[in-house]
Design goal:
Largest sheet: 6 strands, antiparallel
Number of strands: 10
CATH topology of the largest domain: endopeptidase fold (from Nostoc punctiforme)
Order of helices and strands: HHEHEHEEEHEHEHEEHEHH
Strand content: 15-25%
Helix content: 25-40%
CATH superfamily of the largest domain: endopeptidase domain like (from Nostoc punctiforme)
Oligomer: single chain
Radius of gyration: 27 Å
Number of helices: 10
Distance between the termini: 98 Å
Strand order of the largest sheet: 4-3-2-1-5-10
Number of domains: 2
CATH architecture of the largest domain: Alpha-Beta Complex
């Protein structure tokens, strides 16, 4: 068991190794504004730069490699039992903004939002989610704290690293297969899919038409979800806060006249002539001319 644990720690460390070369420039996201605007139960998508992130990008054809659930500050949690459960896993400043996420090598943990300050981020907001259901989603995510990360997921990612043609079929990834026995292990998107599924909130449901007027929805197995699905879902609003937000400052680029002001909308020509006359006044004589 010690050898297995040591091997898993080494593999997790190698896969989680970050490429810091892209962090010397300005981030793509206005982090300060995101902190002001993010709400409880928003899903935060993260573009990672680790080895495991590059694998996920290649497999899912998406830049989004990780998803976390924003639960707010500790004093924003209304349920005392849930609040106490969080306090068992987080003993920091209660004013900090918190996430719950399933992390490779760590399991399901409480994380500070500030951890992703210099990352490329996107908010996916469940549209119209009731307040009571928001509390249930948070309560479910909190109940997963301390669960291990799914080791099968880790092994599957290693299989993705190997040339596909040289891997026997029986060894190929079982990442998307259901395994009912793994009830105390999870991955980031699976945990979020289960949380929203608890309140019957759709992510990417499958619709079956029964007749011209009726149809039925089927829930997707939570193990099939990956971070990009929250981006694709028509039921989540996509919110971006770019570091350079051109929309905010567009009005400053308008061709304003810095000298004149219109007092009567019918006298534009008169005003224009008066200003031209004022420009001809020699400095020192302005008080003499009428």
């Amino acid at each position: 068991m010690r050898l297995k644990s040591w091997l898993m720690d080494r593999m997790s460390g190698w896969l989680n190794k970050e490429d810091e070369t892209d962090y010397y420039g300005l981030p793509l996201t206005d982090y300060e504004r995101l902190c002001d605007e993010i709400r409880q139960v928003d899903v935060l998508l993260v573009e990672g730069r680790s080895r495991v992130s590059e694998v996920i990008k290649a497999v899912t054809f998406s830049p989004w490699t990780h998803a976390a659930l924003y639960i707010g500050r500790l004093d924003q949690i209304r349920d005392g039992t849930v609040q106490n459960r969080i306090a068992e896993h987080y003993r920091g400043d209660p004013r900090e903004q918190l996430l719950i996420e399933a992390m490779l090598g760590e399991g399901t943990v409480i994380t500070l939002l500030s951890k992703y300050k210099r990352k490329h981020l996107r908010i996916c907001r469940p549209r119209g989610l009731a307040r009571s259901d928001r509390d249930r989603v948070i309560a479910y995510a909190v109940s997963q704290l301390g669960y291990d990360y799914d080791v099968r997921h880790l092994l599957d990612l290693y299989r993705f690293l190997l040339p596909y043609v040289f891997v026997p079929k029986r060894w190929r990834s079982t990442l998307f297969e259901y395994n009912a026995g793994e009830s105390t292990k999870t991955v980031c998107s699976c945990m979020l899919g289960q949380a929203f599924g608890l309140v019957d909130y759709p992510i990417l449901p499958v619709a079956e038409r029964l007749n011209e007027e009726e149809f039925k929805l089927y829930k997707t197995n939570p193990r099939l979800y990956c971070p990009r699905d929250f981006d694709y879902s028509p039921y989540f609003d996509i919110i971006k806060y770019p570091f350079f937000d051109f929309d905010v400052a567009t009005y400053r680029a308008l061709p304003w006249d810095s000298d004149g002001v219109i007092y009567n909308m019918g006298d534009e020509r008169l005003f224009s002539r008066r200003r031209e006359e004022e420009k001809k006044i020699i400095p020192g004589e302005r008080g003499e001319k009428r």
